[in-house]
Amino acid sequence: MMKKPIFRIFVSSTYIDLINYRHAAEKAINDQKQKYEGMEYMGAMDKEPVAACLDLVEQCDLFIGIYAWRYGHVPDTSDISITELEYRHAKQLEKPCLCYLVDKEQPWKPGFIEDGEAGDKLNTFKAGLTKEVVRSTFTESADLLYKIARDLSNWLAENRPDLRMSKLKPGQDPVKSYKKAIAKKYTTLSMIGFNRTFAMDSIYIPLTIHPDQNPRFAGNRSEDDEKSLIRSLKAEELLDLPDRTVVVLGEPGMGKSTMLQYLALRESKRTDGRFPIIVKLADFCKTRDPLESFLLAGVEHHITGASMQNSARHALAGHNALILLDGLDEVSRNEYRSVTERIKSFSAAHEECRIIITSRKAGFQCSEVPFRLFELDQLPPGEIENFVRKWFNGETDLAQRIAVNRRIHELAQNPFLLSIICFIFEKDQSLPQRRVELYQKCAVTLLTLFDEKQIPKQNAYTRRLKEQVLKDIAYHFFCKDVDEFSYESLIEQIAETLSEMGQTDNEEKVLREICENSGLLQKSDDHHFFVHRTFFEYYVSCKMRSESRSTVLSRVSQAEWEEPIRLFAAQIKTIEEGSEFIGKLWAEDRALALRCYPDMARVVEPELIKKLLIQADVNERIELVKGLPEKIGDPEKIVETLRELFNHESNGEVIYWGVQILEKMNKISGAAEIMYEKFDKGAKERYKNYIENDMVCIPAGTFMMGSPDNEYDRGSNETLHEVKLDEFYISRFQVTNVLYEKFDPDHKKRRDTYSDGDRQPVVYVNWYEAVMFCRWLGCRLPVEAEWEYVCRASTNTPFSTGGNLTDKQANYDARYPYKNNPKGKYIEQTAPVGSYPPNAWGIYDMHGNVWEWCQDWYDEKYYETCKGKGTVENPRGPESGSDRVLRGGSWRSNAQDCRSASRGGLRPDDRNYAIGFRLVFVPQSGGSS
């Protein structure tokens, strides 16, 4: 295919008074993909050799002159200024010229207005220009940019066959011709400057949007109309909504402009499709025209002629026009009200037209726009996979790599960042697993795109210089808590950076190169911002590397500094520095230290977090977890903290409180996965390996729970009532030290003379810890009714052994026997499980040895409530309480407390040397409750 010609365009003007206007001209030229040339490339202003200036004029294809109130430098070899010399040379060589004069009413700095002889010469020069080549006058730089862009587009159309606007032949259908031109324009999509293009139909991902539930519309709506806006929609469905005018909001990089281009392409290819007109509102704000006039002018960019204009007017007047207005956030703040008023006027006068407006969320002023709002959704996993497949045109495992790395997946939900990830993977066939490395690679890739494509003169400045500029910009404005930066303050900061680096580069050109070549900084109205907050915070963290550690740590209490601190920590290179930093951070904010740790695991001492957790008292760790919702607030950060905590924490109560939080946040990404990894993932295998052979099936049945009124030493809380239970499994033995310590190895420190053997029952375990251990094995604690049902083993006597309990039948303080039975031996500690005979169902130690936690809350009156209901099926105890049920007595109990019906309660956080538990498993419910 023939390469498109690129024209050299020389811009002539005085310099210091017209810097911003020259930038406007340069942007108009660059937007048309032509080559800008001017005095900036020849050294200091007004001191260029005349020969060099005239040589550039001689080589140019088009001459543009911009003139205000300065005549300019007059060289010693001439009596006229270099500015006038340039113009005369262009005319002598018959170069095409586009010249512009400042409007006489435009305010101007007095210091930039020449009088006397220079003023007279200027007036004479301008008078001659007016007669010859002046195209128009201009006011602000934005006005000049629009006029140069317009005139340059027309000139290029005349001088480049590939840009020449089509003219209709006799008998041609103007609508079909126009749609064909639109389809040609948007058939391909260039991906953020990468060295490749895609067919729009092959790469475009159907974006979804969700409606704003706060209506901003005029008029009444039916109930059906409102119901249609409850769910998320595909972008194409916007064309079928009751609302004819809508606004689609999205963060940078979410595909707003691409969505409009796709809709224009889609409608242009459909036989019955709407008449699409797509324009940029940043261009519209530079005019005072009504929107209809501007849209008709936009049609002229594709097909010219009266019949085309008539067809376009007919489409606007009818019901089949689709008006796509891109970038409301790019409208000048001074023009925002004017632009929105003209849009509203157009919408009111063209009720049958479909109008879709896009805007960045941060630049949108909802009070000015009374239309229905929608917001672009982040890409779901399926669409990420779809995009990756389209990019690589075949099989690749990139989507799977993205899915398993949570941080990278978060970035990939943004189409712009996903395309960068694809580009990096395509180039290297690898993907950094640490997010700071991915951010760095993304940033370097964007800063060096044109270098890698070996396009000369695109990147005039080194990557090192631009990185330093970005670091300083990010840090300066982040410290001021500013997300968008005014042009003036940005230029001032860049100038300061260049000065500190000893560079004499033009700060405005540096800014322009960063914006236009990398896209890391983008412009909206008269403000700039980072394309994604990820890069903003990344460059802040890079700048922080030059700060003292005490300065970094002084910010840990400020929530907005968390991400820069985490990225800073991830850039630490040595184990000595990393371990020291984590240790100091742990002392300041343990939750933040936990969140920093995953990206630092390679530069800290092995098991450092585990050591720090063990050094902290269990109660401190419990308070750490319980305080997360109030301290952090952000659910995603809470989940992230608990994910890392669960990787190292083994204490059941700490884990219990974490689980309570996660279950309330089960809709937050990752919450359910944490609990699955901690408990469910290996529960079946652990159950099979550790306890399956010791579980006894207990048949379903009905029994009388509690004690009869005539039972000796019965309690008032033992009201007799009938209970019916389903089948379940229960552990033959109480949980032992060796079994429990497979879950919490640190518990071994709690062994003492009362229960220090592997086969002795575990003690010093509170209710919370017991519950988490059970869940780890896919089990649960027995409810009180199940416990007594098993203990009785079909008996109705005080003990499963009958009317008495001896020291040969159970481990209890036999110095205090039941009734007046003989005293026995007191061994003063727990006995290994199974040391005494089992009951009739083969279950050991249901009387004595250790008290056993049950699932239920304790309530003295609960049995009376049950009795009033008749036969109670599978009771689960009271709904609330302050104590949890304990059953069975212990090695320290007297005989009456070891009775089958004896019951008591204790605070669930209590633990002592006489309390243990056993397991229940219910196959049909998957085990846990």
- Beta-strand portion reads 5-15%
Overall pLDDT score = 88
Structural class: alpha/beta
Major sheet summary line: 7 strands, mixed
Report Rg.
39 Å
Indicate the low-confidence ranges by residue numbers.
42-47, 216-222, 925-929
Helical percentage = 40-55%
Distance between the first and last residues' Cα: 69 Å
- How many helices does DSSP assign? 37
Q: What would the principal axes of the Cα set say about the shape?
A: elongated
Going across the biggest sheet, name each strand in turn: 10-9-16-11-15-14-12
SS elements, strand count? 29
Descriptive overview:
The longest helix is centred in the last third of the chain and has 20 residues, at 671-690. Helix 29 (618-626) packs parallel to helix 32. Strand 7 (188-190) and strand 8 form a beta hairpin. This protein has 929 residues and is of the alpha/beta class. The radius of gyration is 39 Å and the shape is elongated. It contains 37 helices and 29 strands.
Write a compact overview of the structure shown.
With 929 residues, the protein is an alpha/beta fold.
What layout of secondary structure does this protein have?
Layout: E1 8-12, H1 19-31, E2 35-37, H2 50-59, E3 62-67, H3 82-92, E4 97-102, H4 116-132, E5 134-138, H5 141-159, E6 166-167, H6 174-186, E7 188-190, E8 197-199, H7 200-203, E9 208-211, H8 223-227, E10 233-234, E11 245-250, H9 256-269, E12 275-280, H10 281-284, H11 291-300, E13 303-304, H12 306-317, E14 321-326, H13 336-349, E15 354-360, E16 372-376, H14 381-392, H15 398-404, H16 406-412, H17 415-428, H18 435-447, H19 449-452, H20 463-479, E17 485-486, H21 487-500, H22 507-518, E18 521-524, E19 527-530, H23 533-544, H24 549-553, H25 562-570, H26 575-588, H27 590-596, H28 608-615, H29 618-626, H30 628-631, H31 635-648, H32 652-664, H33 671-690, E20 695-698, E21 701-705, E22 721-725, E23 728-731, H34 737-743, H35 767-776, H36 784-792, E24 851-857, H37 862-867, E25 872-873, E26 884-887, E27 903-906, E28 915-916, E29 920-921
Parallel strand pairs: 1-2, 1-3, 3-4, 4-5, 6-13, 11-15, 11-16, 12-14, 14-15, 22-25, 24-28
Antiparallel strand pairs: 7-8, 9-10, 9-16, 17-19, 18-19, 20-23, 21-22, 23-29, 24-26, 26-27
Helix pairs in contact: 1-5, 2-3, 6-9, 11-12, 14-15, 14-17, 17-18, 20-21, 20-23, 21-22, 23-25, 26-27, 27-31, 29-32, 32-35
